[in-house]
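Bench log. Compound arrived from synthesis this morning; before running ITC I wanted a structural hypothesis for how iron/sulfur cluster sits in the protein. Inputs:
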Amino acid sequence: MSGVFDFQLSPYVYPFVKNNNVLLLNTKDMNAMIFNEEEHVAAFMRELLSPSSFGVIRVDTSTEQYKHCKHFIDKVCKLGNGLFTEVRAGSGIVPVLNPYLLKIRTPAPGAERGTNITLVLNHECFHNCSHCTDYARQFTSCTKRNSHAVMNPELVRSLLNYYNSSDHFSIDICGGDLALHPRLDEIVDILSPVEGICRYHIHYRQFKNNINRLPEQAGKIIIVDFPVADSSCFENPQKYTYNFVVSKKEDLTLCRDYVMTHSIPNFYISIMDAGRSNGFMKESIFLLQDGLECSLGSFSFKDKVRIINSHYFHKTFIMPNGDVYSSAKGGPVANLYHDAYLHVKEFVQNMHTQSWEAARNREGNSNVCTDCLFYEMCPGWW
Ligand code: SF4
């Protein structure tokens, strides 16, 4: 067999690589393949799992890499754990997405549970992204609302007083369009001493107006949806982390093109349920659950999105008017202009812990996880 081939794992295979050892767990039949002390195989798998591979490695069978890994590739394919497909020279790689690949691309929380705060500084924005409202419900994003409320810098200052340098916490900062906040510079100054754990989230359409207003050292997440109308946010990509919003198969290919063309080192993918592409989401994200008929399989599609999307787990959202939310459902649980933050913090934390435990508790009557085959390896514990 000679030529150029694309290698990918089957979507129901969970890979683990540690030092020079590789474990592939087939979650369909629960059989495992183990390759111990296989330096080349481990390097091959690391390459496959690096975000920029998009789940596919192109292999030329005349290379040393293939010679070293042929036994691995053959065995994986023979047991139905992967595909090795011949491709025409020059044809593009078709990226793949599955629950595991999505999970490894999801950014680390950056703080212990319960201490992740999202500050929404304002609601105004002059752009008109078609899924604006949905974005903020599904991942950390700007979103506009019909309100001129803006966050008072003093509220930010007093919030920080409740934390000291030994606390583990992180702050995500979103608008509206942050540049439209009349006192943005003051808030940036207040947050600057804690900038190691501050991340500003701006949409690429807001890039030009915002980027010079934000501190050089602070984390900046650029939200990119498709099609991209202005590429200026891709200059100096090493300075930013990109959050690519993918709602259909074609978006994934575009995402890979941008990553390759601009040599983007840091990015992650947010899956967006735009209500028009259930096929893609079902195939790419929920395939495991359906295939195994775990309890999630019997939930409606909308509920699966809600359950699997961890956007709201253990987070506190503070709106410009001081309202505090702990989830997308229901109203505010407190208001920081009226309630002491310490009480609010404790209350929200307890609420998250209780709901999480209720969902996970084997003894409970209304839990959603009991029959799930992934109980012990649930991404919620990662
Ligand atoms: S840039 Fe952000 S806030 Fe403005 S419309 Fe788009 S998603 Fe909404």
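What the model suggests: The domain at 4-95 is CATH 3.90.930 (Outer Surface Protein A; domain 3). The radius of gyration is 22 Å.
ITC booked for Thursday regardless.
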